[in-house]
Amino acid sequence: MNPNIISTSLVSEPFEPVDAAQQFHRDWGHAGAIVTFTGSVRPDFKGQQVDYLFLDWYPGMTEASIDRIAQTTRETFDVLAVSAVHRCGKVPAGDAVVFVAAASEHRRAAFEAADFMMDQLKSNAALWKRECGPHLNQWVEPTPKDALDMQRWSIPA
Question: Can you identify the CATH homologous superfamily of domain 6-150?
Answer without folding.
Answer: Molybdopterin biosynthesis MoaE subunit (3.90.1170.40)
